[in-house]
From TrEMBL:
Name the UniProt record assigns to this protein: Transmembrane protein
Alphabetical keyword list: Membrane, Transmembrane, Transmembrane helix
Native organism taxonomy: Bacteria, Pseudomonadati, Pseudomonadota, Alphaproteobacteria, Hyphomicrobiales
Recorded superkingdom: Bacteria
Species whose genome carries this gene: Rhizobium loti
Residues that span the membrane, as ranges: 12-32, 52-77, 89-109, 129-148
Length: 174
């Protein structure tokens, strides 16, 4: 009975965090972390740009911790109900998540350095390539979301309840 309660508690944390953090969170963090048009013109020196970019690092760390909640739930579910096939999928989720975090951090940091303050080229043009990273992030996030959603559904489904499509013996009798 306690395993069922722990599974239910994990499901109660997993599903809202998956919806609010993974599906709605990127929009909120995007609004909070990007340098807007009124900030870039006020930055005039290389030091100011670097300070603005470095100021995004604590938010990126918090964002990564918040996004890790669904993955943590999957790991805890696996510890509770070990299954080798699901364990491999969770490892894949963790790897995809790590790549997503690095890609997102590079994009956020790079976009902070791209505001050019009166056309002064303070930083390497390589940072301009970070503008393509959101597309890479989407390409990685789609399989991550699908895999995480399917694992969460598998773990949060009760095993002691028969499947809905299974026919009951009573229904077949006249």
């Amino acid at each position: 009975m306690t395993r069922l309660a722990v599974r239910a508690l994990l499901a109660a944390v997993f599903w809202p965090s998956l919806f609010f953090f993974w599906f709605l969170g990127p929009f909120v963090f995007l609004l909070l972390s990007t340098t807007s048009s009124e900030v870039c013109p006020r930055l005039e020196t290389r030091g100011e740009f670097l300070a603005a970019a470095n100021a995004t690092l604590p938010m990126l760390a918090v964002q990564s911790l918040v996004y890790a909640v669904p993955i943590l739930c999957l790991v805890l579910w696996e510890r509770l109900l070990p299954e080798p096939a699901r364990a491999r999928h969770i490892v894949t989720c963790i790897k995809l998540f790590a790549v997503t975090i690095v890609t997102g951090a590079l994009w956020s940091y790079g976009s902070s350095l791209m505001g050019d303050g009166y056309g002064q080229p303070f930083f390497s043009p390589m940072w301009q390539w970070t503008s393509y990273l959101p597309m890479v992030g989407i390409a990685i996030n789609i399989p991550l979301y699908v895999l995480t959603f399917s694992l969460g559904r598998a773990y949060s489904t009760r095993e002691d309840v028969p499947a809905a499509d299974a026919a009951h013996p009573d229904q077949n009798m006249p």
